[in-house]
Amino acid sequence: MLLTDQDLFSLNTGDWTSVVEKVHACLKPQLQNKSFIDLVKSEYQEERKSMISDLVDSFFDTGTDNLDLRVLDFTNQMKTINDRYQMSLKYDFVKIIKTHKGVNQYDNLCKVRDFLLMDSNDYSLAYSRLSSVILEISNQSMGQGDKSNAGQAGEDMVRAIFNSVGLVKDLHYREQYKSTAGSDTDFVLPNVDDYCDSQVDALVAVQFSTNDRGRLASSELKQGGIRYMVTGNGLPASKKSLKDIGSQILQNFAYLNIRLVCLHDEIEHETQRIDSMTDPDIERLKYIQSSAISFSTFANKVKHFKTT
User: Fold this and answer.
1) CATH of the domain at 221
2) Is there a contact between 287 and 58 (Cβ–Cβ < 8 Å)?
3) CB pairs under 8 A, 24+ apart, for 47-51?
């Protein structure tokens, strides 16, 4: 379906409702589903990933001194990078359409671009309504980007921690390990081939913001090695704190001997929060005190894999 000039000019009239659905239907397939939005996102992603990779690499062999504070700063920097790119895609996408050369591949977007480049004072209502259509379509795609970035942030955080003690991917540890049962595990140590469960000494699952999804970690963390659940809860860049992880999930972690790894100050904060309750959750407190460890403690526990 092709847009016409008359379709776009009609958005400036009182009869705009009769054409806006056609405008939406014409633009959606050229914006979504491996079209213009994906083209722009792929360009942004390459630059974003390069900047974050440089941050991860900066941790290499830096040791564990002040590691929790350095991880906090690292995740803040990651959030700044991710937010900058996501903000451009979410709130400045009309400008991208007006300036990006990739628009030339799409006939309807070319027509929209040319319309947007006209003097908006003459067609202010059409400009506003067309912009709303574009942003409504684009934001449907951008929501998934936030979730993807959060998942990637958690894995990059663990890579930075491993880097701090000199652990190297595919030499000392493996990512996305496939087991004979359960889900793929984010990280295992030492580096072993898939399905060699008996050779795995430590398994690491990661969630940057953990709440009830924490129960999914048990599927990744199979029996046979020391099990760690790394969370960003309590970091300013995360949307959650330890109190957002349900007590039943922590009880399950305790039963399965899964150690929780998070920011040192958040462990202290959660301990104080439970202590201050009128009716303290004793089992939760016992787990936090016995099985929650800081990022630096975690790094010190896995650094011996560098020599194995």
Assistant:
1) 3.40.91.80
2) no
3) 47/85, 48/81, 48/82, 48/85, 51/81
109: tokens are 């977007």
Mind listing the pLDDT tens digit for each residue in 189-220? 999 999 999 999 999 999 998 876 666 666 77
Please, how many CA atoms are within 13 Å of residue 182, restricted to the half-sphere of its CB?
Answer: 19
8-state DSSP, 304: G
Half-sphere exposure in the Cβ direction for 125 (13 Å, CA) = 10
**Res 212: pLDDT:** 65
Tokens of 90: 């979410």
Phi/psi of residue 186, each to 5°?
-55, -50
pLDDT at residue 60 in the model: 97
Position 85 in a domain: yes
Q: What's the domain count of the chain? A: 2
pLDDT (mean) for 22-46:
91
| Domain span including residue 206 | 174-306
| Confidence category of residue 223, pLDDT binned at 50, 70, 90 | confident
Residue located via tokens 């359960």: 182
Cα-to-chain-centroid distance, residue 76: 13
pTM: predicted TM-score of the whole model, two decimal places: 0.84
Instruction: Judge whether 78 and 153 are in contact, CB under 8 Å.
Output: yes
Same structural domain, 113 and 252: no
Which residues, including other chains, have CB under 8 Å from residue 120's CB and lie 6 or more apart?
A: 127
- Among 178, 185, 270, 260, residue whose Cα is nearest residue 221: 185
Q: Which residue has the tokens 């202010």?
A: 124
- Map residue 92 onto helix, strand or coil: coil
